[in-house]
Amino acid sequence: MKNLSFFQVGVIGVFIFLILIAALIFSGILPGFRPDSSSGGTVSMWGSIPSAVFKAALQNEKALSNANLVVNYTEIAPASFEARLVDALARGEGPDLIVMPHTLIYRHADKVQVLPNESLSARDYADTFVEEGDLFRIAAGSIALPLYVDPLVMYVNRDSYSAAGYPRTPELWEQFFSAGSGSSVLSTLTAIDARGTIEKSAIALGDFSTVSHAKDIMSLLLLQSGNAIVAQRATADGEYVSILGESGKPAGATALSVNFFTQFADRGKTTYTWSGALPKSKDAFSSGVLASYLGFASELPELKQKNPHLNFDMTLVPQRAVGPTLTFGNLYGVAVLARSRSQHAAFNAAGIITGKNFSGALAKTLSVASARRDALDTRSTDPLRSVIDRSALIARGWLDPNPAATETIFGTMVQSTIVGRAETTSAVSRAHQELTILLNRR
């Protein structure tokens, strides 16, 4: 081989560098976020993802080893995650990274290191992640990088619908009530005996004690009505406020959503399909009693295991005939803690873990959807995967100041309406006031 000139060597070197950068971009590691390639090392990470699943994904991710990064992952149960984290930070300890559910944003955003807009611009962020990922965005940058979304979907008993002569399941809420040329879906798929006991049900709504994910379903209905539940004021302090039903303003959309939900548990209405005397709606669906079940995509493996003989399918949640097309989703992201002593390495790891390859593979294992737009396959030949990924694109959430407390607030709002202790507008007004108090405790 002839000796190459200095200029030729330089050109070849630049060409190779560009190929490497292009490979990183197309592999999903550099969507606009530019990690420091010199920052390898070992970082610790906490999350509630099953340890075996996450560690297997880490071992299969070559980009981590190529970057000389080692991630030591610890699984912590969801019920104790927040308390363990707060306790560790109070002692000056804790991990470098956490898998952060969106329900922790409001109370703990001040404990994470913001990725500035100079490293990942608002434009690149929006082009890379699904819209619900905006919950992790603040004016200064990103408090976490979205990892995956667990969207609310509708599971349907195919045998129930087919036996009743329905070739398609409802795509709109209104289609549950529409009689068309015959009986409505609600009346056809619901069986009530002479004593008023529900033997089979078309759909489980109305009761907070036995409807699985009742608060999330109520959130879905509110969001579909155009009510964001919590909003940030366009003021200098940018405080967050409840918009369930502000004083002096009509709470119409919220009240209508509550009335829609509760009508299914009202014995005096033709829409009566559910009761607090029934088992949890997930169990009712698994046993074949319930024809339509609103649950999360991540429940798919459990439903298959609970009843291997159940012939069921998955669809998008029903939408309103008029209004935004959306579902509720639980969003999870990777955040670097402010007290981390290895922030450069931690941000490098976060960029790889939330990249197309890693998040896409992890999402399929967990039966959820990657939060990356380029990892979603809405035209997948797998009919269930296409529903999950399409649901992720329309998923929305809200900044919940205290999940346990808002569970009680929403439950009281609904149950007090069902038993007649309060008019719907009064129940909504009280819920608004209680949510406002929670937001002011920040």
From TrEMBL:
Instruction: Enumerate the transmembrane spans.
Output: 6-30
Keywords, comma-separated and alphabetical:
Membrane, Transmembrane, Transmembrane helix
- Write down the InterPro entries for this protein, in alphabetical order: Bact_solute-bd_prot1 (IPR050490)
Q: Which organism is it from?
A: Candidatus Vogelbacteria bacterium RIFOXYD1_FULL_51_18
Top-rank taxon, per record: Bacteria
The answer to whether UniProt assigns keyword Iron to this entry is: no
* Protein name stated in the entry: ABC transporter substrate-binding protein
**Mind telling me which SUPFAM superfamilies this protein's record contains?**
Periplasmic binding protein-like II (SSF53850)
